[in-house]
Amino acid sequence: MKRYITYTAVIFTVLLNCPSGIYGQAKGSFEVSPVSAISSGSDDMAPVILSDGILFCSNRKVNPFLTKKNLEGVRLYELYFAPFDENGEPGKPVRFSSNLGKDTNIGPASVSSDGKTIYFTRNYIVGRKVKKNESNKLGIFTATRNGSQLTDIQSFKYNDTASNLSYPYVSADGMYLFFCSDMPGTIGKYDIYMCENVDGKWTSPVNLGDKVNSADAEINPFLHSSGRLYFASDRAGGPGGLDIWFTTLALGSWTKPVVLDDPINSEADDFAFYAVQGNLEGYFASNRRKSNDDIFRFSNTIIRWSVCDTLRKNNYCYEFIEENALKNDTIDVRFRWEWNFGDGIKADGVTAEHCYSGPGVYDVSLDIVNLITGGIEKRQASYELAITDVEQPVIASPDKIMAGENLVLNAGDSYLPGMDIARYYWNFGDETVSSGLEVSKIYSLPGEYNIQLIVSSKPGAGGVVREVCVCKDIEVTPDGN
Amino acid sequence: MRENRYIHIVILSLLLALPAGVNSQEVPGPDENIPFLITFGRQGGETSWGDDDFSQTFFFTVPKDYKDPFYIRIYDPDIGGKTDELNNFWNTRMVYTIFGGKGCYTDPQAKGIDPSGNYKSGTMLATRTFGMDNKLDERWFTFGPFNPADGEYYPKFSSNVFKIICDGVSGDDGNLYRYALSRRSDANVPIEGANAFTYEYTFRMWNNNDTSFVSHIYPYIDSGCIYIRQRNFDWDNDGEFVVVSVERKGQSMPLSGEDQWVDDRMPILDAEIGKSLDFRFYKKRGDLVRNNNVVMTVENQYGENLQFFSAPIGGVPVYKPRITVRPKK
């Protein structure tokens, strides 16, 4: 909660009313651990993953003898950079830059994909004492990387000293800039806005609207390559305090936000979600361990096969061909081919088609009727047709449901002979999972979801566990709400 | 080609030696279900009785390893009595002549279907003329004994070949008869591995209108045969003619009308090469056609006449359906 104190007392009051939330539908989807190498006894937050390390902001002591404070004696935030070691682990942090501002809060920040431009939050008043009755709100600034230096600090076009503008996030393609503000037009305490890059210039900020922005505060926007916009909010509906939510732009409007499950969200403040593009793994901040904010790493523990067989339909329909008659084109009206499919059904013709009711072993035979004599030559050929179901796990479910509707998925028709099944694991295609022979799922958002059913056997000889996967697409249509 | 030809000769030799020929020396053969051969007297040249040329030639093959004397027997050789076909009054004479020696088979004109030119090639071994003779009515007459070495040795068959020609030299009655090759003069005792064949088959159909009375003749399909052309004469549209083989359940072929030739081509399948076809003749179910005498020939794409063996080479071809079952897409 202290992260608001840093920036604005307005927001601080908002955060005192953290509601208790609900838990999501699937636990254990993520593995969370604190990043000890960059933790301090102070507040560390707003991680940004760069190619060579992590950029974050902290109000830690600059060194054991120096704590960065403003002229009023308030402890200030500064940007730090923790370079990755050879194992890709963040190492000892160092101050990111010394020339982004003096006696001011610096951060959170965002860096363009090419690494040349940094968007960062900073107080408007820099390098002097704030006068009595003077507010020193937050604005967004940019700096250009020039070798190892950051230069050419520019104020964001829409900065207004009467409003706070903070938490900039520039999209990976450089086309969108998200930020948070309490500027006029804000719905709640603090809203997310978006500007679009048109011909190198940012368009006027657009409030993301009341589906995304609540009456409470929304901070730390982050757009993932999946299309999800993650943010933190202290609105009702989460486990408590600040929680991490996401929304998706669908058909031109943002969908109803969904809160992430534990262990990412907790009853404490969880915020500043930042993931690598492509995979859902990265960092976030939380004060769950103690009163100060720490940076945590999360990784996705959801099992999802990169290659999973598509659910195949059992086929009980067959074609029957008398090859010699067909090949030699000697079909003659003086003879009639009569097929007995072995299930009491018969058909005439050199070729025939028949659909059985289900698996089984069928004694298919062919009689030939001599139409000249009327004689029947019985069982001139026969074929033992063994029909089995496709050896696969089976997902029994409707193909289409409405958002908010309870979807029941059943694996009871799985045909896996010889497999002593230990677990039915369901990946619902939206980073949620479940297990069991029959499970339920409610999709909040319309869309196309690829459900995977992964069936594991009990350990066999040598402890070998056999696993098979099958997937099925489910269309979730808008529920009309 | 030469190598293939050699292989084919070996195979045919083996086939001719099969036990299937044990009972085959009766002509028509037991598998053919044909009651009689028939030859009419040539007086007046009337072919509408069902004989196009008043002559019938058959060949007998005696395996080269068979050294004992043998006999050629004729059932009901006379013309008159119960089993022949009367026209006004019995006035017909038939000459049966048996040939052996060089050229009796290999002379090109011996293999023809017209009794012309040197069709009586080879060395005459025996001959006899028959007219109305009650003593021989429905009885067997025996020619022989013959020395197998007196035939013409034909390497492709590994056999000595003899020829018997029945010529209707006078009169206009129809002579119904059968042949048999025998080890004994007084009974039909077959010679193992022997066979009989003709290039033009003139025979009598059964006198009934029961389609279960199916007659067969068995042309042998030699290697290199691409298609055959069957020709049939004076069938009086009496029923159905279908061709059966190991891969052909029953392909319909046209039958001729009264005093008429009709012909049709049929492509030969790979699986039919080196085997016999089964020409099946089903009598008409409705109106009974009595005393129907018919003629059948078959030739390959080169116009070479093919043999009808009394005991089908390779056995009676049996069609075997081949089932494929596959999932419907």
Distinctive features:
heterodimer; A: 481 residues; mainly beta; Tachylectin-2, Chain A; Immunoglobulin-like; 6-stranded mixed sheet; 5-stranded antiparallel sheet; B: 329 residues; 9-stranded antiparallel sheet; 7-stranded antiparallel sheet; 21 strands
Strand portion of chain A: 35-45%
Text of the CATH class of the largest domain in chain A: Mainly Beta
Tally of domains of chain A = 3
- Please report the two chains with the greatest interface, counting residues with C-beta closer than 8 angstroms to the partner's C-beta: A-B, 33 and 25 residues
The main β sheet of chain A shows up as:
6 strands, mixed
Number of DSSP helical runs of chain B: 1
Structural class of chain A: mainly beta
Mean pLDDT of chain A: 86
Distance between the termini of chain B: 45 Å
Query: In terms of per-residue confidence, which ranges of chain A show pLDDT below 50 for 5 or more consecutive residues?
Result: 1-28
Distance between termini of chain A? 33 Å
Q: What sequence of helices (H) and strands (E) makes up the elements of chain B? A: HEEEEEEEEEEEEEEEEEEEEE
Give the strand tally of chain A. 38
CATH topological fold name of the largest domain in chain A: Tachylectin-2, Chain A
- Report the sheet-strand fraction of chain B: 35-45%
**How many whole angstroms does the radius of gyration of chain A measure?**
32 Å
Low-confidence stretches of chain B: 1-24
Oligomer: heterodimer
Shape of chain B: globular
Largest sheet of chain B: 9 strands, antiparallel
